Amino acid sequence: METESKPPAILTTVIGNVMVIAYNRPHRRNAWNVSTVRESIAAIKQANEDPAIGAIVITGEGASYCAGADLKEDPEYDPVTNHRMTPATLSMGQGDHNWTSLLSRSKPVICAINGPAHGIGATHTLSADIRVIAASASFSFAFLKLKVMPECGSTALLPRLIGAGRANNILLRGGTISAQQALDWGLVTDIFPDEGFRESAIALAQELADLPRLQMQFTKQMLATNAEQGDPEAIMRCESQTFVAFLKAMKKTKPL
Questions:
Q1: Domain residues for 246?
Q2: Which of 114, 131, 156, 161 is the least buried, fewest Cβ under 10 Å from its Cβ?
Q3: What is the pLDDT of residues 102-139, one digit of tens each?
Q4: Cβ neighbourhood burial of 175 (10 Å; 0-12, 13-18, 19+)
Q5: Phi/psi zone of residue 65: left (φ > 0), alpha (ψ -120 to 50 degrees), beta?
Q6: Is 85 among the domain residues?
Q7: Shared domain check, 183 and 116
C-alpha cells in the first residue's frame, strides 16, 4: 500500500531572473517546521549558485506570511546527536544553517510579507535586504507573552532597523506592528496593495536582479561591515580594500 507523500514545505518559481520562494503550508498558516527551514536554505543556496538568478523573493502561499514556529508539528531528531531539531535551532546554527549569515552572503533577498508574520515568521525577515508588506499584513513579536524569547538575530537586527527604543518596546511588551507603522519606522520600504502584491514584489526584485551582480555583492559586503562602524578611518579602509578586491575580481572575469 502506497503512503501519501507530504507536499513540499515551500514552492519555488523562477520568473525572469528572479527566484520566488513561497512557504507552502497554508493549512498551518505557513508556520515554519524543520522541513520549511531545510527546503528554504536549499532553495536560497540553489539561487545563489545559479548564474541566471539575480534576486530572491520570499513570500507565503494563501492569506498568511508565516505564523512562527509550528508547535504542533511531530518532533524530529538529529540522527547523529539525537537532539530534537526545531526551526529556531536549525536556523541559528553554523555556516549555511545560520540564517542571518546565509542571507548576508546571498544575492539580494526581498521578504514580501503578504499576511500576518508572527514570532520567527517576523524575526527571520530582519535578515533580508529589503522587506515589503501588503496593506493588510502585520508583524507580531509576542515572544514574552508566549513565555519564550526572541531569536534569529532579532535582538541585534531589530534595533538597527527601527532604533533601540522602539525595538525594546516591541520585544519587551510583545507588540504588533501594522503595515503603516512598519513603513513609518523603517522596518519595510514599501506598502503594496493586497491585490497584485506578489507581482509588485517580483517587479521590485527584478530591478535588483538587473543591476550588475559583482557590484551588488561588494556593496552588500560594505553595508554589512560599515553599518555600525563609527571610526571614519575604518570606514574608508573598508571601502578602499573592497574596491581593490572588486578590481581584482573584475580582472578574473574578463575573457582572455
A1: 213-253
A2: 156
A3: 999 999 999 999 999 999 999 999 999 999 999 999 99
A4: middle
A5: alpha
A6: yes
A7: yes
* 35 and 120 share one domain: yes
What the block records as the C-alpha cell of 144 is 514574552
Whether the CB-CB separation of 159 and 167 falls below 8 Å is answered with: yes
- At 116, list the grid cell: 500576518
Q: Do 138 and 192 sit in the same domain of this protein?
A: yes
| Residues 106 and 27 reside in one and the same domain | yes
8-30 b/e with 16+ CB inside 10 Å = b?
ebbebeeeebbbbbbbbbeebbb
Establish if 4 belongs to a structural domain: no
> What pLDDT does 254 receive?
61
Q: Is there a single domain that holds both residue 226 and residue 149? A: no
- Which position has the grid cell 503578504? 114
Q: Which three cell numbers stand for residue 212?
A: 550588475
- Kindly report the length of the chain: 256
